[in-house]
């Protein structure tokens, strides 16, 4: 890149701020274009993804998900829930029934969600100031009952945790934590996962321990032996 481009940074990325012209064009386009695929997004999930080739390295991930059908969901992954968030990856989630039909080599690319759900690491942020907390927690519980058995296939394109200001290199396969000792050894940009997890909870105004207790009644499905391969090497 030329020096005149790298001198300026906006929203954690190399580049100049949006001009008034660009903002006007964006607003006009959003008013007249059909953005149906994006409008079908119906859930926001927050968790941490681990790098499959470096499983003790991880990054916070905000999933914005839509259902293709009862067996497949697709999620856009952002680094934050802010309007200027960076799109860092994608995740597909499929049902156990569909997962079992995949070739073995393909199944090895997918991860489970059991630990994320049962530990309280995975949760659904609420932006509502009207909906009672108890009602939202009941809705989240129902969603977690569904997610706990799903398998996810995730690739990240932008390694923001290492400070990249533009997407660099090839897409990287990601996974999930499957037990507590992995979390204890994990790092987010060199910092303890436990510390960053606690800051995440405080930022969103939640308590993962409380969610863990509330989810004790969620049945634990059997995880296929081919999933989560990065923890079995």
Short description:
The chain has 233 residues and is α+β, with helices and mostly antiparallel strands.
- By DSSP (H or I, 4+ residues per run), the number of helices equals 10
Helix content class: 25-40%
Structural class: alpha+beta
**Counted beta strands:** 11
- Spatial shape: globular
- Alpha-carbon Rg, integer: 19 Å
| Secondary-structure element series | HEEHHEEEEHHEHHEEHEEHH
What can be said about the biggest beta sheet? 6 strands, antiparallel, barrel
Strand content: 15-25%
Mean pLDDT: 90
Numbering strands along the chain, what is their spatial order in the largest sheet? 3-4-5-6-8-9
Distance between the termini: 38 Å
Runs with pLDDT <50, length 5+? 1-5
What would your notes on this structure say?
It is a single chain. The protein has ten helices and eleven strands. It is of the alpha+beta class. The strands form three sheets. Strands 3-4-5-6-8-9 form a six-stranded antiparallel β-barrel. Strands 1-2 form a two-stranded antiparallel ribbon. Strand 5 and strand 6 form a beta hairpin. The radius of gyration is 19 Å and the shape is globular. The N and C termini lie far apart (38 Å). 27% of the residues are buried. The N terminus is likely disordered.
């Amino acid at each position: 890149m030329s020096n005149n481009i790298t001198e300026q940074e906006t929203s954690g990325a190399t580049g100049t701020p949006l001009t008034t012209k660009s903002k006007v064009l964006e607003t006009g386009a959003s008013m007249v274009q059909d953005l149906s695929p994006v409008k079908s997004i119906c859930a926001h999930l927050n968790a941490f993804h681990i790098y499959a080739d470096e499983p003790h390295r991880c990054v916070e991930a905000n999933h914005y998900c839509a259902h293709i059908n009862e067996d497949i969901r697709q999620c856009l992954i952002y680094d934050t829930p802010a309007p200027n968030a960076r799109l860092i990856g994608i995740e597909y989630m499929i049902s156990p029934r569909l997962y079992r039909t995949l070739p073995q080599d393909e199944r090895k690319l997918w991860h489970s969600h059991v630990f994320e759900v049962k530990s309280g690491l995975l949760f659904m942020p609420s932006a509502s100031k009207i909906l009672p907390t108890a009602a939202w927690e009941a809705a989240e519980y129902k969603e977690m009952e569904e997610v706990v058995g799903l398998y996810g296939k995730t690739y990240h394109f932008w390694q923001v945790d290492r400070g990249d200001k533009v997407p660099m290199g090839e897409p990287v396969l990601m996974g999930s934590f499957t037990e507590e000792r992995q979390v204890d050894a994990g790092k987010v940009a060199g910092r303890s996962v436990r510390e960053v997890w606690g800051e995440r909870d405080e930022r969103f105004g939640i308590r993962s321990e409380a969610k863990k207790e509330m989810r004790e009644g969620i049945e634990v499905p059997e995880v296929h032996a081919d999933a989560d391969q990065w923890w079995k090497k």
